[in-house]
Description:
This protein is mainly beta. Helix content is 8%, strand content 31%.
Amino acid sequence: MASTSVTVAVWAFGQSFSNVVADSERLVVKNACSENIWIATDTSKMPNTPGVKLLTPGQETRYNIPDYFLPGTRFWPKMGCNADGQECEIGDSGGPGQTCHNGCAPPVDSKFEATWNSNGVDWWDTSAVDGFTLPYKVEVSGSCSQPTIDCSHLTWDSCPHENIAGVGDTDLTLRSPFDNKVVGCYNPCTILTHDNWNNPLGHHSPEDGLANPYCCPTPPVSSQQCKAGPAASSEFTKLIHAHCPHVYAYAYDDDVGLSTCPQNTVYTWTLFCPGGSPTPTPSPSPSPTPPSSGVSICSMVRGDLCLDLTDGAEQDGTKLQVWTADPSNPNSNQRWQRRGTEILHHTADGRDLCIDIPNNDHSNGNKLQVWTCAGSPQQQWEQDGNAFRVSNSCMDLTDGITTDGNKIQIWECNGGVNQNQQWQLRNLGDESALMV
C-alpha cells in the first residue's frame, strides 16, 4: 500500500543498519525546463541538506545520501518562487524548511521518495497518489534492472474530470486562489481530503464513506476492496497508467509503483516545464519553390504596430511587445522567421529565440516571451486564418491597446470575433530573417 506522504518508509520499518555503502551522490536532479526550478526536501529527514536548492535552466544538483539506513525521504519541485525559493506558485505545499504564501497549497506535488540502504536495497517511487505538478523522467544506473520511468508527457492539459459518487462531475485541476492559474492536478482522494486554499470538497476524512473508496485507508478498506473499487478504475488512474507507467496512481497500486534497486544505484530525476518534455522540431517539408523571405508580424487593430523585442534584448525571458514600425522595412527587433510551427527571432550572434508561453501556462493574460528554441509545446504556433494559437490559446494584443510598448499576452481564442487576435504577416526581402 502507498501512503500519501512517505510511501517507502512503511516498507523499511524495522530494517537493520547493516550492508550499507559509503556516502555518495546518488540522487541527481536536472532542470530541463526554460524556467527556474527549486528542489525542496524535508529537512527533518535530511538535516544536513538545504530545504530548497535553485536549479536554473539546464542546471543539475546532486544529493549526498548517507551511508546508513535512511527512511522516508521526499523531494519535490517548486516554481515561481521568491529569491529564497519560498512562497512559490507551484509546489508550495509546506513542510519542515518550507515557507508558504498565505496558506500552503494542497500537496499534489510530483515527487521522488526513497528509503535508502535497507538491508542492501533502496525502496523508492515517484507516487502520484496525491496528484502531480511537473512532468519528469527517472533513469537508474546500470546496477539496477528497473526500467526508466518516463512521465515527461504528463501535462496539466491532460488532467481529467472525475465522476465522484455523491459529488458528480469534478474537475481535478488545481488552480491558485490568488490568480486562478493552473498549478497542478489533484488525485481524487486528495481533492476530497485536503481543504487547503478553500477547496470546498476537501472536508472529508480518508475514512468516511465518500472518500474511502478513493483513499483506501486500512481499516476499513482492504487491498482487494480497493482494487475492485473506483480508485483502480478512475479516470486519474487511467491517465497515470497511460502516461506515467510504473508509478503509483492510488494507494494499493503496489504492483505498478514500488521499486527496489541495489544500494549503490544512482538515480537521475529530470524535471520538465509543466507543458512536458521538448519534442523534436518538425523538419520543413520539401517545396518546389524557394522559401519566402522573413516576415514582420503586425496587428490588424493598427497595421503599423508590429511584434517587437522589448528594449531589443536578445535573451531568454525578454517579453514580447508591439511598437510602431514600417511593416515592409522593420528594425532588427521586429524581424521574425516562420520555421515549421515555430516563430523565431535570429539574433545578431547566431542564436534562435522562439516566441514562448512561460511555463506553458495557458491562463488568460499570461504575457509572452522569447526563449531559446527547444521544440517544446509552448513554442508551437499553428496559424489559424490571421490568428496564431497554441492549443486553444491565441496570441493577443492586451486590451486592444495600440500604444508603443503594450505587451502581448495569450487569451482563449475567440474565433476572430475581435481584432486583438488578428495578425498580418508581411514578407521581407532581408535574408537575415529567412522564412522556412
